[in-house]
Amino acid sequence: MARGSIRLKRQPDYWELRSYAGPDPITARPRYVSRSFCGGKRDANEAFAEIDSIGNQADQSVAGLLLAHIDHLEQRGREARTIESYLGITRKVAAPTASAAR
């Protein structure tokens, strides 16, 4: 069941899609995934269904956000070496440190 909203922000055909993404694991406050969409109402409803399924699985960790961004860049056609470089940086940044384990 979809929990969220679709609203017309600006004429013509500029929508805000907002989907519930579950409670925050630390604060227990509700989290939402929000996207802007330009197109017709039918297309906005289809995009909302996609965002709703993604929002419920959203990984809000630093590593999850960086990997999602790298996936986006890969879909946009970035070079393979650039993607590999970004993955290496992500591994370094998101890796747990020895001091945090203590």
How would you describe what is shown here?
With 102 residues, this protein is an alpha+beta fold. The protein folds into two domains: 4-55, no CATH class; 62-95. 47% of the residues lie in helices and 25% in strands. It has four helices and three strands. A three-stranded antiparallel sheet has the order 1-2-3, with helices on one face. Strand 1 and strand 2 (14-23) form a beta hairpin. Helix 2 (62-75) packs antiparallel against helix 3 (80-94). The chain is flat and about 40 Å long. The chain starts with a strand and ends with a helix.
In a few lines, what is going on in this structure?
This protein is of the alpha+beta class and 102 residues long. Helices cover 47% and strands 25% of the residues. Helix 2 (62-75) runs antiparallel to helix 3 (80-94).
List keywords for this structure.
2 domains, alpha+beta, 3 strands
Structural class: alpha+beta
Mean pLDDT reading: 81
Strand content: 25-35%
Query: How many beta-strand elements?
Result: 3
Helical proportion?
40-55%
| Number of structurally distinct domains | 2
The main pleated sheet reads as:
3 strands, antiparallel
The radius of gyration computed from the alpha-carbon positions, rounded to a whole number of angstroms, is: 17 Å
- H/I helix tally: 4
Terminal Cα separation, in Å?
Answer: 42 Å
Strand order of the largest sheet: 1-2-3
